[in-house]
Predict the structure.
Amino acid sequence: MGSGMRPRQCTRMLAGLLVTALVMSMWIPLALGAETFTVDLTAQGFAFDKAVVTVPAGAATTLHFVNNDAGVPHNVAIYESAAAKTTIFQGTRITGKKAIDYTFTAPTTPGTYFFRCDVHPAMMTGQFVVVPAVSADVTAHGMAFDVGTITVPAGGFVRIHFTNQDDGVPHNIAIYDSAAAAKTFFQGQQIMGVQTVDYTFFAPAQPGTYFFRCDVHPASMNGAFVVVPAVVVDVTARQMAFDVSTITVPAAAYVTLHFTNSDSGIPHNVAVYDSSAAQTAFFQGAIITGPATVDYALFAPSQPGTYFFRCDVHPASMHGDFVATSP
């Protein structure tokens, strides 16, 4: 086993599953291609109109590109970094004035990537930001929500499938800075029961405890909207060993564990337990046969402490400490 690994903060993030402290609320990562997302980008005067393009992880993405520079060729290409050595997507060049819809799947690993015009790479560039994508079901029934706490990763793309089961009664979900509702982060449309609606929005970028409520019945239908740090760690299995002996993340953080199995023909995974006795599992990643990679989604334990990670296939030789630190 190798040295300890600390996460990269906010440049890469993840989706996963959480049981909240007050009321159980199930959050799952949006499956690859399950989310569709459209974004507009325009080239004019040899410049893009956006310096940052943000999309959900794994989303089937449509980038509506307009080239307003008459007689000038432009395109949009996405790379892993400004070095442009690894191509994620390379759009067809079009000569203005013209428009095109580029379609591609966003990277499944959240993080900050790079986009540019390949014809004018020195002056036409920007950041292509991929954020965690999470979804959940929330129900209103008997003039109450079925969850008291909603927890999401900072800056993540959130889809709430909201069901209003109160026949003839209007409800919605809205997110505010606090119970005073001085600042609105999201305000969902009101729906009359019995109906359902999908709300989509980006979570606040700053971790903290916010507030959600039904605007029609704010005194009785409300709860905590908790935004936790989002981090990423890379772990590799090679020659029947992990390349790290310690994984360190903030307690309760939303963790992307980007796992690479470099052992050809050999199955490995990463699982997190309470201790080396492995009696209580916090997370058990799918087993993959190398060479292969996968993005695991998990919330770190909420209590700071030293836990345990291992490969379930080779637990005696592939293991280490999973450390949750105080915020």
In short: The domain at 141-228 is CATH 2.60.40.420 (Immunoglobulin-like). The two ends are 27 Å apart (CA to CA). DSSP finds no helices and 34 strands in the chain. Residues 8-26 have pLDDT under 50 and may be disordered.
